[in-house]
Amino acid sequence: MSASSDMSHSHVFLGSDHGRNERRIWLVIALTAVMMVVEIGAGTVFGSMALLADGWHMSTHVSAMLISALAYLYARRHANNARFTFGTGKLGDLAGFASAIVLALIALIMGWESILRLLDPVAINFREAIAIAVAGLVVNLVSAWLLRDDHDHHHGHSSHGHGQAHDHNHDHDHGDHSHHVHGHGGGRDNNFRSVYVHVIADAMTSVLAIIALLLGSRFGWTFLDPVMGIVGGLVILQWSWSLLRASGAVLLDFIPQGEDLPGEIREAIETGTDRITDLHVWQVGPGHHAAIVAVATSVSRDPAFYKARLADIHELSHVTVEVTVDKAA
After folding, report:
1. What is the CATH number that goes with domain 164-186+256-329?
2. What's the whole-model pTM score?
3. Of 232, 273, 299, 304, whose CB neighbour count within 10 A is largest?
4. Class of domain 18-153+188-251
5. 188 class by beta-carbon count within 10 Å (0-12 exposed, 13-18 middle, 19+ buried)
6. Band (10; pLDDT cuts 50, 70, 90)
7. Banded pLDDT at 218 (limits 50, 70, 90)
């Protein structure tokens, strides 16, 4: 014999800044794409390899940012698609992972081209190259301003808000119960972070290029240009690795060091005769975590009792509690 309440509840686990982040990324893409077209067009008309090279370099960043923007669009449009059993919140991490791979490829190409330049130096038109680098830096600074205050702290929430819950209680002969809780919490949006990293990487490349070109034009140190390219490539590669680890951890349901949600859940549940026999915690979107908690107790209690104990853990947006009555506990 069993009884249950309405099972149709929302599983929208998008970050609270999802719409704003999507709009800002499209603005940055438009700005970068315009600069890219101008550079490629001018390079073709005036026969400038420097303009052409920088224009095609910007096209790689536009392509990577398009991955992020389309992920936001797809996640939003399919947020209520029941085939995504835990929502579309993880699409951003998948896009961030792909974007980090593109960033790593850009870094490797930069390093390889710089090594070739060291082995076979070419003449540099310093005035034109400096002007291009400055223009690129201005575009990057404007893009960074558009992405301001969002790359390190995002706060997500579910569509039904904190404090609302959907209870599903199943009473069986062996004393098992199920219960789902929906809340909200804060978390990093790796998709938005990937776009910010692309912008900062491009800005850093422009700054290093300007320094190298200024010193090269003043003292004739033409070797500084490829050397700075190698340095920039190594730094970007490190940023790419960091982004790969962060987004990959979410995709593999890995709990990073420094996050102790399982410990918090155990501390909240395991009191008296109550003990957790099975626990699974994973991220389902920016600021949203899901958990499956199996509790063994000697006293028959409704899952709502344990829901109340977990209410202060705001990172938990979807919790399933299973209670087994064990008289020997």
Report:
1. 3.30.70.1350
2. 0.78
3. 232
4. mainly alpha
5. buried
6. low
7. confident
